[in-house]
Amino acid sequence: MSFQAPDLLLVSDVHLGAHLKPRGRGEFVHLRSQVDRAFSRFIEHYRRTMPGRGLQLVVNGDFIDFWNVEVGAEIADPEARAVARLHAVLDEYPATEDALARLLEDGAGIVFVIGNHDADFLYPKVREALAERLERAAGTFGDPGASATRTGVVRLDALGRGRVRFVRWFLHEPGGVWIEHGHKFDPACASPAALSPTRGGRLVPTVAEVATRNFANLVPEIDHDAPDHMSGLDYVRWAAARGARFTLRCVLLYLRMAGRVLSLAAGRGRADRLGRRTHDALLERIAHNAELQMSTLQALERMAPPPSSTSVAGVMSVLALDLILAATIPPVVGAVAARSFGMSMGLGFLAGSAVAAGAVAVRLRGRERRDVAAKMTEVAADVGRTVGVPLVLMGHSHRGQLEEVGGVLYANSGSFLDGSHVYVERDDRGRLVRASLRRFRNGGVVEVRSEPVPEAPAGVEVAGGGGRGGAPAVVSG
C-alpha cells in the first residue's frame, strides 16, 4: 500500500503557563483551566474526524510561554531551569498533555516549530523532556537519538508512528508550503544568529522578553497583548487613569526595565562568536537538507529587519526612549543655558520646549506604528516567491488570516486563545489543495474562511503524495 501524505493541522500561540508569573490575577488561573479543557477537546475533535490519510499536527510556535514562567529562579543553569519550568507548565495542563499523547497513539505526528516565547526549546534537554513526557505517555518512546534531538531533514512519511519533532526555523514542502512562526519579522521579538542565539552557552534574551519579565509580569493590570495595540501615549493615559501612586510605580518599573533592555545593546543581547559560527553551520546544514540554495536562505534572512537588541537605536525606538529624550532634554538645556547667560530660566525653558516639540514631531513623522500582522502579510508573498511555494503559513501575530497576496496564499493560525487554527487538505495525490481558517468553540469547529491553494510557480517541482518522496520535509537543527 502506497504512503498517503497526511492533512496538516496548524495551531499556534497557545501560551501554556502564561499564568505562572510573579503577580497574577484570578482570571489568569481561570484562563488556564479554560485553555486546558478547550485544547484537549480540540484535539479530541480532530481525532474523531481524522481523515483516512491521517493528520500531521504542526504547533507553529509559542506553545509554552516561558517568558511568563518564573518558577525555578533559584536554578543557576539556564538549561536545567528551562527544563524545570517545562515540567511545571505541563503539570498545570494535564488534559492537554493527555490529549497530545492520545494523538500520538493514533499514529499522528507532532512537530513543534520554535517561536519566540518558547525559544527555550533550542536547549536540547528541554526538547528531550517534552518528547519523553508525550511519547512515554503514548507508549511510543524509543531511542532518544532518533527522536526529538535528531538533526536533519525528516520527511513526514519517515517520522514513524506517534513521534515528536522540533524545528528551529521552518517546515518546507517543495512547491507546496512554507511554515514558520514569523517572529523574525518582529524586531522586538527577534534574536541575532537565530538558529543559535547564544552567548556563553546561554540563550540571549530579546527586547520583548526583558520587557515582559521586568515590566508586564510585575503589572498584572496590563493587557497581555498591549504592545500590539498601545502606543507610548496610550501607556501614559492607562497609568494616569489608575492614580498617582500606580503611575509612580509604573515609572520606576519602566526605568529599571529600560536600563536592563539597554544592556542588551551593550552586548548581552548579541550572540557571541561561537553562537554565530553555530548558526552559520546550521544554516548550511538546513540548506542542504531542505534542498535549497544557501543564497535563498540568506535572502530570507535579509527580508527580516535587524533585531532591536543589537543596536542602541533599536532599543531606544522600541522603548520610546528617543521620544522621551527628545521631549525632556531641550527644555532642561534651554533653562540651564539661559541661566548661565543671565537670562530668564522660564524663557529658556519655553524656548527649549518649542525645540522639543519640533524634535518630537520629526521623530513621530518618521516612526512607523508597530503592526506585526501587516508586516507579516506584506512579507508573505516575498517569502513564497523566494522559495517557490504557493502557500505560506505563519503564527505570532495572534490575528487569524487567510488571504491571497501577490499570487501567494497566506494563512495565519492566529492564537489558540480564541480557538483560531488552520487546516490544509490534500487531494488523493497528496497535493495541498485547500486551506481553511477555522475556529474551535463550544466543542465544535466553525469555518471562518476557505481558499484553494494556488498552483505552484512555473518550473517548480511539486512534492506529490504517491510515494515516499511525496511528503513535506521537516527541517531541523
Q: How do the helices and strands line up, and which of them pair or pack?
A:
Elements: E1 7-11, H1 26-48, E2 55-60, H2 78-92, H3 94-105, E3 109-113, H4 124-138, E4 153-155, E5 164-167, E6 170-173, E7 177-180, E8 198-199, E9 202-203, H5 207-214, H6 232-240, H7 244-268, H8 273-290, H9 294-303, H10 312-319, H11 321-340, H12 345-365, H13 372-387, E10 391-394, E11 400-405, E12 408-413, E13 420-426, E14 432-441, E15 444-452, E16 473-475
Parallel strand pairs: 1-2, 2-3, 3-5, 7-10, 10-12
Antiparallel strand pairs: 1-13, 4-16, 6-7, 6-16, 8-9, 11-12, 13-14, 14-15
How many helices? The count is 13
Strand content: 15-25%
**What is the radius of gyration?**
24 Å
N-to-C order of helices and strands: EHEHHEHEEEEEEHHHHHHHHHEEEEEEE
CATH superfamily of the largest domain: Metallo-dependent phosphatases
Helical content stands at: 40-55%
Number of separate domains = 2
What is the CATH architecture term of the largest domain?
Answer: 4-Layer Sandwich
Strand segment count: 16
- Largest beta sheet, briefly? 7 strands, mixed
Low-confidence stretches: 144-158, 465-477
